[in-house]
Amino acid sequence: MSSIMTIAWKEFKGFVKNPTFYIMMALLTLILSLLFTVQMQKFFQLGSMAMTQPGMGAQLNIHYTVFLNHLQILNLLLIFIVPAITMRLFAEEKKLRTFDLLLTSPLKSYEIVLGKYLGALMALFVVFAIAFMYPLGTAMFAQFSWAPLIIAFFGIYLIAAIYAAMNLFCSSLSESILISYVMAAILNIAVWFVSQGVEFADSQWARNILEHISLSFHISGLIEGTIRTNSLIYFFSGIGLFLFLNERVVESHRWR
Amino acid sequence: MIDVKNLTKEYGTLKAIDNVTFSIKKGEVVGFLGPNGAGKSTTMKIITGFMAPSNGSASVAGFDVFENPIEVKKRIGYLPETPPVYADQFVSEYLKYVAQLKKVPKDKINSFVDRAIEKTNLGSVRNRLIHHLSKGFKQRVGIAQAIVSDPEVLILDEPTVGLDPKQVAEIRDLIIELKGHHTIILSTHILPEVQATCEKVVIISKGKIVAQDTIDNLSKLEKGQGRIFIRLRKEVSDLRSVIAGIDEVMSVDIGNNKREWRIEYKGDDETIDKVSSKIVSNGLGLIELTPSRVDLEDVFLKLTYGMEKGG
Fold first, then answer.
1. CA B29 → CA A179, B1, B155, B272, distances in Å?
2. Mind listing the pLDDT tens digit for each residue in A42-75?
3. Closest approach of A220 to chain B, Cα-based (Å)
4. Of A125, B128, B195, B203, whose CB has the highest number of CB atoms within 10 Å?
5. For A191, how many CA atoms within 13 A lie in the half-sphere containing its CB?
6. Mean pLDDT value of segment B7-33
7. Rg for chain A, CA atoms, rounded
8. Which of B51, B81, B145 sits opposite A256 (nearest CB)?
9. Cβ contacts of B131 within 8 Å, gap of 6 or more
10. Inter-CA distances, A191 with A167, A181, B69, Å
């Protein structure tokens, strides 16, 4: 366990010291700020309309109109942010031959993988902390219930965690940071398309299958503030699968 | 301490090492010698548990490298060909990280890091980013990384490559200093390095071990064969005719000029007697006569290059 934390901390410190990470976070802040204000404005417009047309206000909810859109945007951005965070974790080590150090240290392959994965999750936590600033700021002049918001954030964090597991696996496959980024982004987009495919599938049968493997289906419950066990099992088994594959790739280095 | 038996590693159809067997006792400093691409690095990587062999077995301190890799890795400090350093870390931060990875007990980490820094003379750069260090310093950080966990076995893959002569000398001194405390395997293709630091030599060529012995024994490889160097006061156009009568003399070669000669002979010390008395009785003015043994370079070339020529 201590080795896992050693690697995780080292990787996290690597992110914090890296100027690219700051540039990425600055861009994230810029995009989120622009779009969050737009959402807020829309909400206020709807609000003032509701005052003149009674009965419409019942539909109006800051959680749905503002925060969920905010999270949807974050969800979309994660497709490109997560690969940028994970791309160097294995690829760079292999390229610079520092991977030799990890492979000749008294570590099990799963410790290396989990350490790097936790490091990536810590970096993602920074991303979510930034995104959480917006509802936090809103709380200064509006009242809303926190529990569904936090559960929704948790849901999107689980999506980020799945992306991180998949993208870390991509990083372990290549020695090139660029290839690992492109591979990871394509995989994320592919997964995202599965969710879109649900709407376009013709047969009910195919739709059922797509629905159960799509992220958005499982996330919808969490986004509305309800935690379902089958979704949690789905997320954790997805993470587990890719970490396992990743561990196999690392282990295979010892047998070449 | 280290036992290697019938080790074979194949990359596809290419045999990097072929049936390599040797053993190293505790506290020995062993030079692993061979031309580029002979299989030195491959053998070392297998001993460190970095890669698995196609066949055969290796054990360190009684632990099999493949059945108990964690125990083996705890006992080994390894410097690969490229020092595995992270450019974005400070020297002391990096060494601390390595010590943690090598499972050094928490309360000893700081003292171990200080010791490694002191031994490798890194005190002046300990708070600098590795990215800003010169190649020589990076190499030293690599060595510090290998010794930071105070391992029983040190495996250094070409530790002096790319260093300037002063740094090479410093690293040699360091290895000599580490002698006795650690069992050291050192790979190189630079011969003086081995002569200066190692007691025992394993020569490997094309994946096979061609000789393993102490340096003393290797230097006397051909039994009863010797070489003398002679300096005369007078110039001689052909020393061969002067000492023609002695059967034991095998060859006579001219040195830098007609006053210096090299004689190779097969026989005991009496041959030297005979040669010197011939020279003196001919009034050539003997100034210097130095018996010299065949040096490591000759052995090395004979075993590696000579075999290729079929000699």
1. 44, 12, 10, 35
2. 888 888 887 777 666 666 778 888 888 898 899 9
3. 41
4. B203
5. 23
6. 87
7. 20
8. B51
9. B87, B88
10. 12, 15, 38
Q: Which of B101, B102, B130 to mutate to test the interface with A (most CBs of A within 10 A)?
A: B101
Q: Which residues of A touch B97 (CB under 8 A)?
A: 6, 10
- From residue A34, alpha-carbon distances to A41, A73, A152, A153 in Å are 11, 11, 21, 20
Query: Could you tell me if B106 and B80 are in contact, meaning their C-beta atoms sit under 8 angstroms apart?
Result: no
* Window 13-32 of A, Cβ < 8 Å to B: 14, 17-18
Supply angle C-alpha A95, A101, A102, rounded to 5.
Answer: 95
Q: Which of B33, B51, B29, B54 is nearest to B42 (CA)?
A: B51
Length of chain A: 256
Q: Which tens digits make up the pLDDT trace of A211-231?
A: 888 888 888 878 777 788 888
CB-closest option in B69, B88, B145 to A14: B88
- Give the predicted TM-score (pTM) of the model: 0.84
Interface test with B, best of A104, A116, A256 (most B CBs within 10 A): A104
The span from the CA of B96 to the CA of B309, in Å, is 50
Full set of structural domains in chain B with CATH: 2-219 (3.40.50.300), 225-293 (3.30.70.260)
Tell me B294's DSSP state.
P
* Phi, then psi, of B288 in degrees rounded to 5: -145, 140
Q: For residue A58, what pLDDT is reported? A: 61
A98 touches chain B (CB under 8 A): yes
Size of chain B in residues = 311
Residue A95: closest C-alpha in chain B? B84
Helix A215-223 × helix A229-253 angle, to 10°: 130
> ipTM of this predicted complex?
0.87
